[in-house]
Amino acid sequence: MTFHTVARVASILIVSLALALPARAVSLLRDADMEYALAQVAAPVLKAAGLSASRTKILVVNDSSLNAFVISNDAIYIHSGLISRMDSAAMLQAVIAHEAAHISNGHITRRITNLGNARTAATLGQALAILAAAAGAGEGAVAIGIGAQSAAQRNFLSHTRAEETAADQSGARYLRSAGIDLGGMLDVFRLFRGQEVLSASRQDPYVRSHPLSRDRLRTIEGFAAAYGNSATATWDYWFTRAKGKLTSFTRRPSWTLNRLGESGYRDIALMREAAARHKNSQTRRAINAIDKAIALRPQDPFLYDLKGQILMETRQFAAAANTHGRAVQLRPNDGLLQAGYGRALLASGNVSAALPALEQARRIDFRDGSMLRDLSVAYAKSGQRGMASLITAERYALRGRLEDAGIHAKRATGLLPEGSGPWQRAQDVLLASERAEKRKKRR
Fold first, then answer.
1. Beta strands 27-30 and 13-16: pairing type?
2. What angle do CA 243, 249, 252 make, to 5 degrees?
3. CA angle 167, 171, 175 (to 5 degrees)
4. What is the signed CA dihedral for 52, 56, 57, 59, rounded to 10 degrees?
5. How much is the pLDDT for 218?
6. CATH code of the region 16-233
7. What percent of the chain is predicted at pLDDT more than 90?
8. How far, in Å, are 167, 172, 182, 189 from residue 224 at the CA level?
9. Which of 17, 88, 194, 273 is the most exposed place for a label (fewest CB within 10 A)?
């Protein structure tokens, strides 16, 4: 995994979401392996909900509290703290089913529509919406970037009890249709059951945005009793892998090394050991562990990705580029893998090869701020100053820094051919920056 913004933790990507409201940033943990594993767990649930598994991403928020939410129709956000507290794939699938129900039942679409005429509507996710449009994603990403502690967020995310009951019932049907044990939903309810007696300041966000009740718990108990239990072993591997990857990079190395035997799968234990050894600067032992994992799964692109990260972060750039190249060969349409390959090529001095790899990564997944930083550097090193300024403007827009985005967008419009696609992208960012400045002055 690679964390963006600062190298606070080796190998998970932290991407700050756009902020237009005065609140702390929401950051995403981006990792190709983890997101693929989560997609495997989510796929049967999303299919049962009538949603596209390829278009509805499961993204992890860098927050230790217990929460999950949806603020657009193309992504479900789950806090890292909630995943870390779960014990089974069925629990994670229950949360995904519930959030998918909010999408399928029209709760989010209705809320976005209602916000359309509100004064705060333009600020909710405006910067990310600009990038979504530039990337061809249409309006799906509108309202993604919001402050985690803001009143606007609480109002947007807070569901009525009627919506919650409807989501429970729909979610239970999705799980049943997918052949997933409803006991996981009961386990999630029990995880939060004691929260409602706490003061609002001590409650986890999930309870405030998803009000619980004993009636809801009894209803799901009735569903579970009527439907019986189903096997979830098919998805347990991918849940264990996602959780193992997450915790190995967010917990202390000693914590991970003491729990390798809990993984249940040899390749996951070796992957976690490699991550922990790397964090302890035990490079040789880290490479040895990841090589053993690759020997067990030689066609697994994500194990090569992790090895590439270890090599990159120990400044073995040429070897890292070769290893990331192997990951991309095995899975060419993964934006995060392409970004890792482009980053390694750039670090090794091969700018001409890095540029197309990073552009491909941008076309696949525009949300990756670290990739945008690398892409701007690649354009600058190749003498394309206009494109470097454009990508920098988009990167600042992604982080909600519209004033800085406007400065670079203005520079880009003066350097790019007027009327070209990149010039129009710069105009879009510049216009958004100017509108934000006008609203700021009116306050």
1. antiparallel
2. 110
3. 175
4. -140
5. 75
6. 3.30.2010.10
7. 56
8. 16, 8, 5, 13
9. 194
